[in-house]
Amino acid sequence: MKQDHSVITSGHVIDDSSTSSPSPAKSAMAAQREQRLPFTIRIVRDEQALQKAVGIRHAAYSRHLPELARNLQQFEQADLADDTIILLAESKFDGSSLGTMRIQTNHDRPLVLEQSVTLPAWLQGRHLAEATRLGVASGQIGKMVKTLLFKAYFLYCVENGIDWMVITARSPLDRQYDALLFQDVFSGGQFIPMQHVGMLPHRVMAFEVATARTRWSAAAHPLFALMFEIHHADLMLERPSNLLSISHSIFGHSNL
Fold first, then answer.
1. How would you classify residue 198: left for phi > 0, otherwise alpha for psi between -120 and 50, otherwise beta?
2. How many other C-beta atoms are found inside a 10 Å radius of the C-beta of residue 207?
């Protein structure tokens, strides 16, 4: 059942640039230097890639949330919804899976977190994208992959006209999103049980896309250069045109 909560109606930065100027987020894509990565991040476009994403997702959740992980050994129907993509990070060295993230927009239907909460007025009627099912390999490479998955999430939102990135985060992972300058959607940093993660309490947090460059610059954020001044050709975010056929192929012979 959805819950209503007192909401924060101020505190997010408003972009004061002229409406005739390009958005700070899109301006950030220009005049960048190149950096190659030891892995690629792509949008899943076939059953084999989706199998790999599910595998790394299950392995990651098994380390921290083994009970939830038992339900993540197969594809989910949400993985192939029309308003959803799956990102997959793969090693250039051996092709192994290093990380994954699912991104759902609200273009066609409410976000999955809206099964549990009613979003406040300042997010109603806005273009939103929620990241879920984040999972990365253990160790230092996993930390690097997680950072670049966030950049891929941000770039995907820039290219698709998203106003706000929205996530739910359990403790202590919520502190990572604090560090990325996400803000609380509900007052007091409440932890709210979420249906899509086994009713575990999560903070609901949001990140305004258009003001990202301005806010990160003002904060002298340590990831500013990586996010806005470096081009990563290994982030390949072209959306596949054949997701429907993939869905038919997979779910036509699955047990889901």
1. left
2. 24
DSSP character string of 151-191: HHHHHHHHHTT-SEEEEEE-TTTHHHHHHTT-EESBGGG--
155-212: per-residue pLDDT in tens?
999 999 999 999 999 888 899 999 999 999 998 888 999 887 778 899 999 999 999 9
Looking at residue 256, its pLDDT comes to 44
The CA-atom distances, in angstroms, between 120 and each of 170, 194, 225 are 20, 17, 32
Return the pLDDT at 243: 54
> 81 with 107: CB under 8 angstroms?
no
The one-letter amino acid code at 22 reads P
Residue 143 CA to residue 165 CA, distance in Å, equals: 20
- The Cβ of residue 45 has, within 10 Å, a number of other Cβ atoms equal to 18
Position 249 scores a pLDDT of 56
Element (H, E) at 25: helix 24-27
Res 28 pLDDT > 50: no
Those residues whose C-beta lies under 8 Å from the C-beta of residue 157, and which sit 6 or more positions away, are 129, 165, 209
Q: 233 is written with which tokens? A: 């050709």
Q: Tell me: pLDDT of 10 over 80.
A: no
Q: How far is it, in rounded angstroms, from Cα 186 to Cα 181?
A: 15
Mean pLDDT, the chain, integer: 84
Containing H/E element for 150?
A: helix 140-159
Calculate the alpha carbon distances from 177 to 24, 78, 154, 192 in Å. Answer: 21, 24, 13, 16
Residues 6+ apart with CB under 8 A from 22: none
Cβ–Cβ < 8 Å for 185, 159: no
